[in-house]
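Z., the sequence and structure:
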Amino acid sequence: MGVGGEEFGPWLARQLSRMDISQAELAERVGLTRAAVSAWVNGRSEPRDDTKRLIAEAFGTDEASLEARVTDVVTTLPLRWHHRRAHADGGREYGNAAAFAFDADMAVLTREATQNSLDERLDTGTPVRVEYTLHELTGSRLKKFLEALQWDELLPHYEQAAGAPQKVSRSLRAALDDLTAGDSLLLLRVDDYNATGLTGPEYADGRFAAVVRRQLDSHKTSGSRAGGSYGLGKATLWATSRFGLVLVNSTLSEAHEGRTERRVIGRLDLPWHEVDGDAYAGPAWFGEPDTAPDHRNVARSWWAAEDTVRDLHLERSSAAPGTSFLIVGAHDASGDAEDLRDIHDKLVRSLADGFWASMVGGRRAGPLLEATVRTLRDGRVIVPEEKVDPSVRHPGLCRALRAYLDEETVDALTSEKQVAEVEVPIVVTPRRGQVGEKGNRHGAVLLLTPAADGDEKHSRVVCMRGNRMTITEHRPRELPPGSIPFQAVLLAGYATERDGQDVALAEAFLRASEPPEHDRWDRTEELTSLYARGALTRLKEFRAEIDKAVRGLVQRETAPRAEGPAGLRELLRLDYSGPTQRRSASFPIVDRLDATLKPSGAWSVAVTVKLPDADDPWLLTPVAKFDVRSGGRPVVDWASLSAMDNCRLERGNLIVDAGVRRAEFHGVTDPATHPVRGALARLVVEVHKARGGAA
C-alpha cells in the first residue's frame, strides 16, 4: 500500500469521474483488463509502481501525485449554483420552516452558533475560540464580492422568489430594494477554532451533511454533554441573513479526500419559485458540479484556493481546525441594533450573557470558551477586536463560579466576598419500560454570593448543565423580608464538573426537558414520551428545592454591605399608587424592580408585583414618572410594555388572574417624553389599580 493521504481506490474512482474516463478506457490505456482497474477502485488491490507510472501518464500528471493523493488531477471545475428542482408531487415550501423556530436576532444567533462551537470543541484541555466579525461592504468591494458569489446568476431566482405574497417573499423584496438603493451589504462571519470542523462525506452521515444538506439532524458527537439536541440551531445562521444565504469554509480535524484545509460550499434557502418556466423547490448550493454518477451536476463542496476564500471573505486567521460561516446580508430583526456599533455591542453583550460561565476558569476546570468581536467597513477597522470579558457584565456570577472551580466556597456567608455552596437534590424519573426502577437522586450544586455593585440584575438563580451555557434564570419565591441582594448559580449534570451515573442521568433528564430554544426546563414531547409518569412533578420539586436552598442562605447573618450601586439607588424608587397610599395587604404592591439606563436614555425596567389573594382578577396600570428637583412628578410614556410572568397585557393594562400572588412585567420608557435626561432624575414606578378589578 502507498503512503498517500487518501486510500488509493476512492482517490482513483474520483479522478476517473472528474476526467470522465471509464474503467474500461483506463484499462486500455495501461494495457490491463477492466477487472484489474475495478479491483483497484474497490480496494481489493493496488497497482505496482510501473503500472502507477502508466496511470500517471494517462492522467497527464506525475507519479508523485499518485503516491501523495492529496490533490485531484483536475484540480478545479467551474463553480456554479445548483438549484433543487420542485417536488414532482407538486408540493411547495414557501421558506425553511426551521428558520421560524427562532427570532432573527443577534442574541439568538450568538446563543445557537456559539453553543454549536462548544459542542464541537476538539481539544478539551484548551478553550474553543469563537470570533465574530462584522464587515460592511460598499462600492467596488461590494461589486467584487458579488461577482465572486455569481450574483448575476442568482438574481433571477431572487426576483421571482420575492414576487410571491408570503412573508419570506416580502422580506426578500425589501432586502433586494435596500441593496440596490444603499449600495451596501453587511457580512457577519462566525469563526471557531479548536473545533472538529465539518468532517465526513458529502452526502452520507457526518457533520458536513448534517449542517449543509439536512434539517433536524443534530449529529452531536459530544453525546450527552452537548448543549443542542434538535438540529434546529444551525437554521439561525440562515434566518439572520436577509437573503437566506450562508457561505462555509471549514478546516477539518480529520482528512476528507486526503485534505483538511479550505473545504468550501455555499447554501441558499429560498421559497418555491419559477424561473423561465422551470419550478424550483427553494434550496440551492454553490460549489463544483459533482461528476459522480449518483449525484451528477449537484453542487458539492470544493477545496478552494487561497485567493478564492479571500474574494469570498472566508479567510481564517489560523490553520487550527474549525469552521467559518459567512452570513450574507446580516441583520437584527429585533430592531434594537440599527448601526454597526449597536450590532457590535449587542454581540458582545449576548456572548457575555449566554456564555459567561463557559469563559470562567479555575483550578478544578479551565475556561471552555474565548470569544471576540470586531467590526470593519470596506477593510478598515471601525471597532477594534474586543475580547468578551464576562466579569464586566456579571461580576457576582463570575465570582461565584470561580470560587467553586477553585474549591473556595463556604457553608454560610459571613462577608460580602464569600460564596456559599449547598446541594440541591433532583430526583430523575425512570424511563418508560424500566419496570421496578426507582428514581435516581442527583445532587445539583447551588452557589450564592452577595450581588456586586456592577451587577445589572440580582436576586435570581442562573441555571445550567453540560457545557455551562445559561439555560434559564429562575426567580426564587417567598424570600424572607430583608434578604440580601444576591447572585446564584445552579450547576446540574456535567456542569458540576463531576462524573458518575447520577450525573449522566440528570444531564439526560434535563436535556430532554428543554425546548428547541434550550431556555427552560419544562414539559416537552421528549420528556413525556421517554420518561415515566411523574417527570413534570420532579421538575416542580426541583424548582421548589432551589427556592428552599436560596431562602436558607439569604436569611443568614452577613457582614454590613452597601445596598447596591449608589447611582442606581439615587435614580430609582418603587411606588404603589391606588385608592390609597397606605401599604396594605389588601392591595398589590411592587416587590422588586430591576432597571437599566440604556445608551438611548431610556429606562428598561423589570417589575415584580406582589398581590394579595383575591377571588376576582386584577386590572393594573403601570405608570412611570420622573421625580425631578422641583414641581410635581411628570408622567413619561412607555415605549413598550410586555407581560413576563403570570399576567397578560391588554390595551396598556396588565390582567392578573384571580389567585395569582406574584406577577412580573417589563417596560421601556420613551426618551422623547422625558422632561430631562434619564440620568438627571429619579425614576418612579407606580402601579395603579383600576376600580372593580378586571372586567
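Residues 227-231, 556-585, 691-695 have pLDDT under 50 and may be disordered. The longest strand covers residues 278-289.

Let me know what you think.
H.
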